[in-house]
Each structure stands twice: as structure tokens, then as C-alpha cells.
Write a structure and sequence with these properties.
- The protein has 4 helices and 23 strands.
- The strands form 5 sheets. It has a 14-stranded antiparallel β-sheet, sandwiched between helices.
- A hairpin with an 8-residue loop joins strand 20 and strand 21.
- The protein is elongated.
- The protein starts with a helix and ends with a strand.
Length: about 325
């Protein structure tokens, strides 16, 4: 499911937290959401200022504040403002040909950004707690990145085909104890280019394209996929009862493509929207499905657990934003 196939090649060791069951459920929910939104994963984008890309200060600890909160009808769930969803580093030396970044996040494992194609571009993976995430040969040469010793690792990356491309990674530990890797592939698999890019990274956060204003209180961002899908999960980590927001190619007034029932029409962000109920994917109470548009005109869906009220689902939808 990972749009950054590069991460698969540098794959993590089995995690100790959150639980395997929680992350497996998050991936399944993400896959289900993407399956419901066919079409190319590349959406029209405007050029963003170079205020952003990959790893350190203001590390987007994407949590939820405690106020103001809207308590559910049974008092068990509240909705509260979320911290801005951001990506923590900014490159100040970026080839124009690479265009805008595509972001990725998996809670407690990594955040990542890719500029250009997987097999011909520059990528950043950061907020990694253990250098064992990568398979670094003991005899890897080193270089200096902003005063930190970085290991240089030669790789092969794949972009969905059997044909691979050469890649060079530079991996180092930051002052905060987290590890970062910058990788150049294809035309950018040159140690000098990778080092120059890595040296240009600044501790400045960049807003991600798809974001929320509110979410269930205490829930955290488990997954952020290719600037088009995000998943929030409860503290117990069961993503099957999580909150998924996904960009969709078109609006739906009857939600027929979602197998929804009890469908009602309403207005969200001053445009027509629809809300209904879906059968739970694990036998629980029917979940919510809402399809609406952002103020910028991008259509999206919200899949939410039955523990939220109808008004809370609408409130969440009204806070969805997307920067085309």
C-alpha cells in the first residue's frame, strides 16, 4: 500500500509499538479507502514555497488538544481541535525538475517525503528511533552532514516494476536522537548531490495538503498516505474503529458506491453533501460515511465509527481542508 516503495526496500524491523494488530488494521482500512476511490494517485497541485520537507524540529507530534470539545450523546467520545498536520524539514536546495513533495507517515515509525519519481528523485525518511530500521553494512563509508556522522549506503529502488534503479542513501542520527535518511535515485544517485540536498534541510515545518481541524479527542494520526488519505486511531489502537478521510474523484448524492443506507442529504461548506450508514467491517454497529467537498472544491469522504454522533461527523467534515 506504500506509495513510497523506497521504504519497502529500506524496510523496518518488526515494531514493538504500537501493536502489530493495530497497524495491520490501519493498513487494511487504508487499502479499503483507496479501493473506494479509483483513479490516479497524482492530483493537480500548485507549486508550494520551499518551506518544507522531512525531519526534526516541530516534529508534528500530531495529537489532539483537549479543548474545545464536543461530547458525544453517551458522553464516551468528544471531538477536539487537532494540532496542525505538518512535515518537519525544509530543503533549501531542490532541483526544479523534481516538483512538489508527496508525504507519508506511519505513527511511531517514520515520516517521509519524496520529490520526483521513486526511481529518479530525492527522498527523505525521518523520525526513525533506531538505525536498525535500515540494513547498514558495517563497512559503510561515512561523511559529515551538518556536524553529524552519516553512513553512506548504496541501494537499489523499485517503482512498481521489476527493473530497479541505483540509489545512494546518507543516514545519520540527529541531536534529538532520531535518525534521518536522505536518498537519491536514478539521476540523483550521486553522493555529492545527495549530500548537498541533506545539508540544505532546515528545521521548518510544512503543512501537508490534506488536513483536519477537529478529530476525536485523544486520537492520533496513524497513517498519512500520498497526500490523499489520512487515518486517525483511538488510544486502544483498533483502526477498524478509526476515522478515515480520503480524497475521492467525484461527489455522490446517494452514496450508492459505498453500500450505504439511511442516506440523507445536507450541506457542508456551502455545497451539497450526503451522509449515511455502512455495515461495520468487523460486525460492530453501523459506521458513518459522509461525502462532501472542501472549500477549495475537492471531493472527499469521511468514514467514522458509530461511537461518534451524526453532528460530530459533520463537524469533522466541515474542518477538512485540501490544498490543490
Amino acid at each position: 500500500m506504500n506509495d513510497l516503495d523506497l521504504l519497502d526496500r529500506f524496510g523496518p524491523r518488526p515494531p514493538t509499538s504500537p501493536s502489530d494488530a493495530a497497524m495491520s488494521a490501519a493498513r487494511q482500512r487504508l487499502d479499503d479507502a483507496m479501493a473506494e476511490a479509483p483513479g490516479p494517485t497524482r492530483l493537480p497541485r500548485r507549486r508550494l514555497p520551499l518551506v518544507a520537507v522531512a525531519a526534526a524540529a516541530a516534529v508534528a507530534a500530531v495529537g489532539v488538544t483537549t479543548t474545545p470539545a464536543l461530547v458525544g450523546s453517551d458522553g464516551s467520545v468528544a471531538v477536539a481541535s487537532v494540532d496542525p498536520l505538518t512535515f518537519p524539514l525544509t530543503p533549501t536546495a531542490l532541483p526544479d525538475a523534481l516538483g512538489d513533495p508527496v508525504f507519508e507517515r506511519e505513527a511511531d515509525r517514520f515520516v517521509a517525503a519524496r520529490y520526483g519519481p521513486i526511481t529518479n528523485g530525492l527522498s527523505i525518511v525521518t523520525d526513525v528511533e533506531d538505525d536498525g530500521y535500515w540494513d547498514i553494512p558495517d563497512d559503510s563509508p561515512t561523511t559529515d552532514i551538518d556536524g553529524h556522522e552519516a553512513r553512506i549506503v548504496n541501494r537499489t529502488v523499485y517503482g512498481g516494476t521489476p527493473q530497479g534503479a541505483a540509489a545512494v542513501s546518507m543516514i545519520w542520527e540527529g541531536d534529538d536522537g532520531d535518525w534521518t535518511a536522505v536518498t537519491g535515485s536514478g539521476d540523483y544517485a550521486d553522493p555529492a548531490r545527495v549530500e548537498a540536498f541533506a545539508e540544505s534541510l532546515q528545521d521548518k515545518p510544512q503543512p501537508v495538503d490534506l488536513s483536519l481541524a477537529v478529530a476525536p479527542e485523544g486520537w492520533t494520526l496513524a497513517t498519512y498516505q500520498a497526500d490523499r488519505i489520512l487515518v486517525f486511531v483511538a488510544p486502544d489502537g483498533d483502526a477498524r474503529d478509526g476515522l478515515t478521510v480520503a480524497l475521492t474523484p467525484r461527489a455522490s448524492s446517494d452514496l450508492s458506491g459505498y453500500g450505504a443506507r439511511e442516506v440523507g442529504n445536507l450541506t457542508v461548506n456551502a455545497t451539497p453533501a450526503a451522509i449515511g450508514r455502512q455495515d461495520s467491517d468487523h460486525g460492530g454497529d453501523p459506521t458513518w460515511i459522509l461525502v462532501a467537498q472542501t472549500t477549495s472544491g475537492q471531493t472527499f469522504s469521511v468514514q467514522a465509527p458509530a461511537s461518534l454522533t451524526r453532528d460530530q461527523v459533520i463537524q469533522i467534515a466541515e474542518g477538512v481542508t485540501y490544498r490543490p
